[in-house]
Amino acid sequence: MSRLVIVSNRVQIPSEKAPRAGGLAVALGAGLKPGTLWFGWSGKRGTGGRTPTLHEAQGVTYATIDLTDKEYHEFYVGFSNGALWPLLHYRLDFLDYFRHEYEGYRGVNAYFAETLLPLLNDDDLVWVHDYQLITTGAEMRERGAQHRIGFFLHIPFVPPEILDALPCGIPLLRALCAYDVVGFHIDDHKNAFLACVSAFLDVTPDEDGSFVYEGRRVQTMSDPIGIDAEDFAATAARSARGAEVRRIRESLFSRALVIGADRLDYSKGLPNRFRAFDQLLERFPEHRGTVSMLQVAARSREDVDRYQQLRRTLDRLVGDINGRYSEFDWIPIRYMTRALSRKTLAGFYRVARVGLVTPLRDGMNLVAKEYVAAQSSADPGVLILSRFAGAAYELRDALIVNPFDADEVAEAINQALTMELPERKERWQALREVVWAGTPERFTETFLAALRP
Ligand code: GDG
Fold first, then answer.
1. Does domain 229-437 correspond to CATH entry 3.40.50.300?
2. Is any ligand 1 atom within 6 A of the Cβ of residue 389?
């Protein structure tokens, strides 16, 4: 059998101790099989490290390279997170495009291709991940790679009118056509991509979503990512008996807990979420003093200006809401920007009566699935989920909301807090089935089945 080679911006080496929030590493880490090679950036910046450093753990080989400061700023902070991330989350108002950063991005993608190729066997299957590495496949082809190379986008794709705003949108689209398979979480993202290739590259996709561009057949697919629900449920149940969960329970004095856990990112809709909680307390005063919200917003991409601005906005907003409603023995919102350990987070999900997942746009959103997995069957909580998360296409028995409508979200929180046990159980059973079925193995196997020759 061919070896699988995963290529992603950051590599998650199991020995890294500090908890890190981030969906891609969590999801790929769970589906890793011995024999796989995982290639990417070490997370280090320096002048050395131009040849890969190899680590072995549990039969998986990790090959990492370093970036220079200039590469980090142009490729990662600049083009990837200052231009592509906002664009692909429909935030043209946040699009900061600079040509030299795009060139830096191309340069790092070329560097990935150049350093990866000598490590490859002829029959390796290469699977490249996410928006940071859109042009890696094209760079590999330019250097003669004949491998089957696939690409998976973990975030949304946008329709032609939006892609058009990015000055290098069409070259990126062409670069995506160097892959044999291009995967997305849901049909909406796939269809937006197909609309873009039809509009800008003048190709007509076949019924099955494949098309031919410059002599190469490109297959597109949707393949929703999942979590290891069984393992997560066990972690949550264990954690529920641990010290942190005891402490949070004691601190609640039997009040209901509403939980949110996200990277501190503007795509996650945190200001909207806080405004909705404000609306809840305003319109349904019976919940004052009887419910607490815990928002864990692990700091992320701190070198990107927009993220610093968001942090200041949230600090102000939480201060304002807490100032208005707090009693000397109760505050409405507990807000922390430090990551919790995965185990503690799982236990807190289990304690929480409501899981509040309200991104303005999200490729999938694994927190929604984790919240479902963490619940106890005897007394499950209620998931409130944005209709703009990819997860909403699968988790239809959640309370689905428009995160831009603070009133609607407030009403959903009220509905969740007052929902009787039989309805909570019924909804959770239906969600449970979906979450348990979508394992990381199924995600990987579905993609690889399309990628294999
Ligand atoms: C991208 C796409 C897509 C969060 N806070 C803490 C913590 N987390 C963990 C969660 C979850 C992960 O981070 C976040 O995953 P998401 O899927 O919600 O979001 P992104 O990081 O934006 O991921 C997304 C994903 O890729 C996979 O394709 O679903 O749409 O944007 O696992 O639990 N983990 C720990 N402490 C925290 O405080 N340990």
1. no
2. no
Query: What is the enclosing helix (H) or strand (E) of 211?
Result: strand 210-213
Common-topology check for domains 4-226+440-451 and 229-437:
yes
Q: With CA atoms as reference, report the closest residue to 21 among 260, 301, 264, 263.
A: 263
Question: Topology of domain 4-226+440-451, per CATH?
Answer: Rossmann fold (3.40.50)
Instruction: Report domain extents, the chain.
Output: 4-226+440-451, 229-437
**Cα(316)–Cα(300) distance, rounded to whole angstroms?**
18
**Distance from Cα 25 to the centre of ligand 1, integer Å:** 9
Which residue minimizes the CA distance to atom 32 of ligand 1? 23
Distance CA(121)–CA(147), nearest Å, equals 9
- In the block, residue with structure tokens 């083009």: 79
Establish whether residue 227 lines the binding site of ligand 1, counting it when its CB lies within 6 angstroms of any ligand atom.
no
The 3-state DSSP class for residue 59 equals coil
Q: What is the pLDDT of residues 367-381, one digit of tens each?
A: 999 999 999 999 999
- Residues 296-320: what's their mean pLDDT? 96
The residue with tokens 């601005």 is 309
Pocket lining: 364 vs ligand 1, CB cutoff 6 Å = yes
Q: Tell which atom from ligand 1 comes closest to the C-alpha of 370.
A: 33
User: What pTM does this model have?
Assistant: 0.97
